[in-house]
Amino acid sequence: MTSSTPRVRTSPTIFDVARLAGVSHQTVSRVINNHASVRESTRLRVQQAVDQLSYRPNAAARAMVGARSRNIGLITTGSSDYGPSSTVLGLLSAARAADYSVSLATAVDTEPESVQAAVGLVLGQHVEALVVVASRARILDALAGLRLRVPVVVIESSGRTSPSLSIDQYAGARTATEHLIALGHRDIVHVAGPGDSMDATERLRGWRDTMAEHGLVAPRALEGDWTPGSGYRIGQQLTQHGRRFTALFVANDQMSLGCVHALAERGIRVPEDVSVVGFDDIPEAEHFAPPLTTMRQDFRQLGTDILTTVLDVVEDRQVEPVARLTPTLVVRRSTRRRD
């Protein structure tokens, strides 16, 4: 492990005390400086952590009370996928509006060493908290092995971490599937995203559960990689093998575009022959031929909620362990009632 990773420790820090006591580092600072605003039960808990770690506050630690860098660390995996990149843009916009800066580091992949190196780089920028955009489960596994000295807020859809925020992919998939069922469709195929994507997994689960609740058979989902090309190949596969379906629920809009292209080449009309629902509501979705029915995700609101949660954590205020926004259905011309 390189010296840039956050595992390196020479002596207990104020952040170690905060983690052990279950409070923010500002609260530890207030205890150290004998502020009257700290509850006695919290003071005792912090003092026990100080004693257990043999922590000795120094001048820098004492100066931390009230000291604010107004800088947030942000870790991404450099994904160009619409969801993660839009989440980053939403947070950057919210931070700028609140007069906060963001120090960004990219993990080149999801290997623990890469994630740890990115975290170590950001922690060197005097950040008040760390936000991690975790599109893959392996990122959570890498984080679990780290000893972090600042509060962490994770953006992930599985709800494995606390605190975490996300857009409820499961609920969105259920809404999309319910829309197709309400139009009279019974043979609904799901074009899924990559198997290691937590968002894709939640959308797959939502489709399956909704089909089962209506007594419908959920056929084997076909897995793409989020790109239009993979959607096109899956659309070709569906038509070449004569698979029976009247509707497609596709895990993102880009793959929907590829599917519609493949169907059109075979003379299959959307929505007259097959209805299609996508996910994300990318800016181009309303200009597809036909305009795409899809699930809209409010990434701007997610960015605002992320910043609010970060500030609540830093200020040691009550925070929801898991918070989710709900996608909304945008009905356009790619779906119609089944004759």
- Beta-strand content bin: 5-15%
The main β sheet shows up as:
6 strands, parallel
Element-by-element helix/strand order: HHHHEHEHEHEEHEHEHEHEEHEE
Q: Characterize the overall form.
A: elongated
CATH class of one domain: Alpha Beta
CATH H-level homologous superfamily name of one domain: Response regulator
Spatial strand order of the main sheet: 2-1-3-4-5-11
Topology-level CATH name of one domain:
Rossmann fold
The low-pLDDT segments are: 1-10, 59-65
Proportion of residues in helical segments: 40-55%
What Rg is obtained from the alpha carbons, in whole angstroms? 24 Å
Number of discrete helical segments: 12
Structural class, by secondary structure, is alpha/beta
CATH structural architecture of one domain: 3-Layer(aba) Sandwich
Number of strands: 12
Note the gap between the termini: 62 Å
Give the integer mean of the pLDDT values.
87
Keywords: DNA-binding, Transcription, Transcription regulation
InterPro entries: HTH_LacI, LacI/GalR-like_sensor, Lambda_DNA-bd_dom_sf, Peripla_BP_I
Pfam family, one: LacI
Protein name: LacI family DNA-binding transcriptional regulator
Helix/strand layout:
Blueprint: H1 14-21, H2 25-32, H3 40-53, H4 59-63, E1 71-76, H5 82-97, E2 101-106, H6 112-123, E3 129-133, H7 137-144, E4 152-155, E5 164-167, H8 169-182, E6 188-192, H9 198-213, E7 222-223, H10 228-240, E8 247-250, H11 253-265, E9 275-277, E10 294-296, H12 299-314, E11 322-325, E12 328-330
Parallel strand pairs: 1-2, 1-3, 3-4, 4-5, 5-11, 6-7, 6-8, 8-9
Antiparallel strand pairs: 10-12
Helix pairs in contact: 1-2, 1-3, 5-12, 6-7, 8-9, 10-11
Pfam family, one: Peripla_BP_3
Protein name: LacI family DNA-binding transcriptional regulator
Domain HTH lacI-type: 12-66
